[in-house]
């Protein structure tokens, strides 16, 4: 091991599999030996990692159809991270000092194979922006829902990591009216004042369907849904002829204490889908391999011109990472939740 590198580092592990939603007692920040990279590996000092909702499903164990493994008691958590290469063997395509993205967050240092690292090439002006989940919103709004000039677009969960990007993207793609939903009056105000939403449906302030009818009296053309549940039901009722619905999440079930994170039943009016000619499709990035590069190019350009922003909360220190996950589940933050090391 290089003498300038520590011999141990901290990481967050699942201490116990919860019954219901995970809480602080289900995690532990532990100190573990720091291995030296071998052939085909580099050591990365993580700078930032994102707290993503999918961890709830991986912890709950309902992982059927997912490309990521279930998390068991004692396992270190993982997820998207960006950092700096601090050790690389001879012959590696990566060099000390290179900035990279990878999937081994939730630890101070990560031992990563060359093929699991993506070098950051400066397409985005701020390295933390590489942790934005905007590619899912962009892909859904260009490949499935195909926003057209003048469309009325509804984004559910508009103050979340994906939703806070989706409304901005819809507007940049030509939407004429953008409506969001949230459960917080404070977040509703920020959606309008900071992200340019035209109206907000406030969950808990009367029937969602009634509020949506007022916000979009002529109906909606596009839905970008991250929630499901009552909000998806209401969106079907508000659908105009030929409306396009793209589902990118199902937080109503995923974050339910009564479920294990991998199901979200909902009742919708299938007759209205038929007579209105509504398309309803789920978005998976794996089905659209060209989206990520296209998104990064457009995202970088929009960031530099100030046409878009990456809303996120930065939580300092790995010791606070379990709390950051709990707060994300509780919906306390606006936009993505990023831990800064």
Structure description:
With 341 residues, this protein is α/β, with parallel strands linked by helices. It has two domains: 8-131 and 311-340, Quinone Oxidoreductase, Chain A, domain 1, CATH 3.90.180; 134-287, Rossmann fold (3-Layer(aba) Sandwich), CATH 3.40.50. It contains ten helices and 15 strands. Helix 2 packs across helix 9. The longest helix is centred in the last third of the chain and has 15 residues, at 291-305. The two termini are 22 Å apart. The mean pLDDT is 96.
> Any idea what the CATH superfamily of the largest domain is called?
Medium-chain alcohol dehydrogenases, catalytic domain
Number of strands: 15
The helix-strand sequence is EEEHEEEEHEHEHEHEHEHHEHEHE
Overall form: globular
Number of domains: 2
What helical percentage do the residues reach? 25-40%
Low-pLDDT segments: none
Fill in the CATH topology of the largest domain: Quinone Oxidoreductase, Chain A, domain 1
Q: How big a fraction of the residues is strand? A: 25-35%
Rounded Rg: 21 Å
* Assigned CATH architecture of the largest domain: Alpha-Beta Complex
> With helices defined by DSSP (H or I, 4 residues minimum), what is the helix count?
10
Characteristic terms for this protein:
Rossmann fold; seven-stranded mixed sheet; Quinone Oxidoreductase, Chain A, domain 1; 2 domains; globular; 10 helices; 341 residues; alpha/beta; single chain
């Amino acid at each position: 091991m290089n003498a300038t590198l520590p011999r141990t580092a901290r990481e967050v592990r699942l201490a116990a599999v919860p019954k219901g939603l995970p809480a602080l007692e289900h995690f532990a920040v532990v100190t573990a030996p720091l291995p030296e990279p071998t052939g085909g590996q580099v050591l990365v000092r993580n700078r930032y990692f994102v707290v993503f909702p999918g961890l709830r499903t991986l912890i709950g164990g309902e992982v059927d159809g997912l490309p990521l493994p279930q998390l068991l008691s004692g396992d270190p958590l993982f997820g998207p991270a960006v950092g700096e290469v601090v050790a690389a063997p001879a012959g590696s395509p990566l060099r000390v000092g290179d900035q990279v993205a990878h999937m081994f967050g939730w630890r101070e240092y990560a031992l990563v194979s060359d093929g699991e690292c993506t070098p950051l090439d400066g397409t985005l002006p701020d390295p933390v922006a590489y942790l934005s989940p905007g590619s899912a919103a962009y892909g859904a709004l260009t490949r499935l829902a195909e926003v057209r000039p003048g469309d009325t677009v509804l984004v559910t969960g508009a103050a979340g990591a994906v939703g806070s990007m989706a409304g901005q993207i819809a507007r940049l793609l030509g939407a004429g009216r953008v409506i969001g939903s949230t459960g917080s009056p404070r977040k509703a105000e920020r959606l309008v004042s900071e992200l340019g939403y035209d109206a907000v449906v406030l969950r808990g302030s009367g029937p969602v369907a009634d509020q949506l009818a007022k916000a979009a009296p002529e109906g909606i053309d596009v839905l970008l849904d991250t929630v499901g549940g009552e909000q998806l039901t209401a969106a079907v009722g508000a659908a105009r002829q030929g409306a396009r619905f793209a589902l990118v999440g199902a937080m109503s079930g995923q974050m339910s204490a009564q479920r294990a994170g991998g199901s979200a039943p909902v009742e919708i009016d299938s007759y209205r889908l038929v007579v209105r000619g509504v398309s309803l499709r789920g978005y998976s990035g794996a089905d659209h391999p060209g989206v990520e590069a296209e998104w990064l190019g457009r995202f970088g350009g929009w960031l530099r011109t100030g046409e878009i922003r990456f809303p996120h909360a930065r939580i300092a220190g790995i010791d606070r990472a379990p709390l950051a996950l709990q707060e994300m589940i509780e919906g306390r933050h606006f936009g993505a939740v990023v831990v800064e090391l």
